[in-house]
Design goal:
The protein has one domain. It contains 12 helices and no strands. The relative contact order is 0.23.
């Protein structure tokens, strides 16, 4: 590997670490860099899980206080994320990802739109006197489980999809949502990585170079993530979601 490729992978990892701690979705930036390092798309996808994992683990630590307030259904969410990561990664290793890529832009467009108008949807739903959020928890967890399967399969932009679900079905703040997103993403990624290692899909040298950058970026993000007002974080996530969606349409359609 050339020196300039290693520097580019490390720098991409730094930015990925910052983005993943605060908002998620950095895989859309790191995935093309891994492709540029000479990997096939399946190898780049599998290696990407390794490269950005530290940022999710750092994010779990950053939002540990928020996570302590979100213990209800946390065990179930973790179980669903592990099972979903297992199912998604097995699908990838047996079928490849080309057949699914055409759906990614539309999935992100739906998620971005839902995230943008989520507060209005939630306000409209809550305006009904008979509305009881607890009666819909089964639907929320089912949708989250579908996202966890997607996370084990491809996973790019899954954080935006989760935020959209949280925004409609729950009262959690952006920071509380980040705490759930980071810990479930970490677990589903670990399960997927185990499957990818067994399948020989991970290219370790580029992955570890980018991972070291992600660790540095996650450390930087620790300094700012929890200090940002929730409204600013929401705007940042929405802006990033629009960029992700545009990139997905450009790349996969």
């Amino acid at each position: 590997m050339a020196l300039h490729e290693a520097i580019l992978l490390f720098a991409g990892g730094v930015l990925a670490g910052v983005i993943n701690v605060i908002a998620g979705g950095a895989g859309f930036m790191t995935f093309p860099l891994l492709l540029a390092a000479g990997m096939t798309e399946v190898e780049a996808n599998a290696s990407n899980f390794v490269a950005v994992l530290p940022a999710n683990i750092v994010g779990t630590w950053v939002y540990r206080r928020e996570l302590a307030t979100m213990q209800k259904n946390l065990g179930l969410r973790l179980a669903l994320s592990a099972i979903g990561g297992l199912i998604g990664s097995l699908i990838l290793t047996h079928t490849g990802q080309a057949s699914f890529q055409s759906a990614i832009p539309w999935l992100l467009l739906f998620a971005t739109t839902t995230f943008a108008i989520g507060p209005r949807i939630k306000a409209a739903v809550e305006a009904y006197p008979a509305f009881n959020r607890d009666n819909w928890i089964w639907l929320q967890l089912t949708l989250e489980f579908c996202v966890y399967i997607y996370a084990g399969y491809f996973g790019l932009g899954m954080g935006i999809i989760l935020f959209a679900i949280y925004g409609v079905f729950s009262t959690m703040t952006i920071h509380q949502g980040n705490s759930i997103r980071n810990i479930t993403t970490s677990l589903s990624s670990l399960v997927a990585i185990a499957i990818f290692i067994g399948s020989g899909l991970i290219r370790w040298v580029p992955s570890l170079i980018m991972m070291s950058g992600a660790i540095a970026g996650g450390y930087i993000a620790i300094r700012v993530a929890r200090r940002l007002p929730a409204a600013y974080v929401r705007v940042a996530i929405l802006g990033w979601a629009v960029c992700l969606t545009a990139l997905a349409f450009k790349r996969y359609l």
